[in-house]
Write a structure and sequence with these properties.
Blueprint lengths: L2 E6 L3 H12 L4 E7 L2 H11 L3 E5 L7 H10 L6 E6 L5 H9 L3 E4 L4 H12 L7 H15 L4 H7 L4 H11 L4 H8 L3 H15 L4 H10 L9
Parallel strand pairs: 1-2, 1-3, 3-4, 4-5
Helix pairs in contact: 2-3, 3-4, 4-6, 6-11, 8-10, 8-11, 9-10
Length: 222
């Protein structure tokens, strides 16, 4: 199945460069280019892409607001992959909270770009676990104290599901979680699926953010 991608960035060279790189992949097709967030929202409704590569800083409507509009509807299908120039960008955490499925540096290689699109399209979402762990940890500090109303929902999870959620937030992959808990990887996948359903979350990235926001996992030194 071909993965349909929309690229949203106010820089022409970025859009065209990513388009060339992605169209060279046999299973990926760039179906549109958006010049800002508002254009991205409109094109998502028209083109129904599987993945949106979303720049954070754009005119008219920024990437964070656009991400919220795209992922906020009940029938939302498109996954958002945030593009950023720096690996520690305060806006990226806000984009994750808005519903983005992951992040990617703009200087990523063609191989990393294609891999990121495939991962997000598949719903696995957490990209580069070591970087994601550091990023979410940093921006959890910026987000302030855990929001109390969300804490109640953690009680819906079993002890093992809570443990798995904690490990997701620490940036571990399914394989790494399976090794840590000495269980089959398929068992971990089952736990992850149940966690997402019980907490009403879309993917692993939202699960990780949720774990930090509820205080289930605390960034080092916080």
């Amino acid at each position: 199945m071909t993965i349909r991608v929309l690229i949203a960035d106010d820089q022409v060279m970025v859009r065209q460069g990513f388009t060339v790189l992605l169209n060279a992949e046999p299973d990926i097709e760039v179906v549109g280019q958006a010049v800002d967030g508002l254009d991205a929202v409109e094109q998502v409704a028209e083109l129904a892409p599987d993945v949106v590569l979303m720049d954070v800083r754009m005119p008219r409507l920024g990437g964070i607001e656009a991400t919220g509009r795209i992922t906020g509807s009940a029938d939302a299908v498109a996954k958002v992959l945030v593009l950023t120039t720096f690996d520690l960008d305060e806006y990226v955490y806000e984009a994750l909270r808005a519903g983005a499925s992951g992040f990617l540096l703009k200087d990523a290689s063609a191989e990393e770009l294609a891999h990121a699109v495939r991962v997000v399209a598949a719903g696995d979402a957490l990209l580069a676990p070591n970087l994601t762990k550091r990023l979410i940890g940093e921006f959890s500090r910026l987000a302030g104290a855990p929001r109390a109303p969300l804490k109640d929902r953690v009680g819906d999870l079993t002890e093992r599901e809570t443990e798995v959620l904690s490990l997701i937030a620490q940036g571990l992959s399914n394989a790494e979680i399976a090794a840590r808990l000495v269980v089959a990887e398929q068992t971990v996948k089952t736990h992850v699926g149940r966690i997402l359903v019980k907490l009403g979350l879309r993917d692993r990235t939202q699960a990780a953010v949720y774990a930090y926001e509820t205080g289930l996992v605390r960034p080092a030194g916080y």
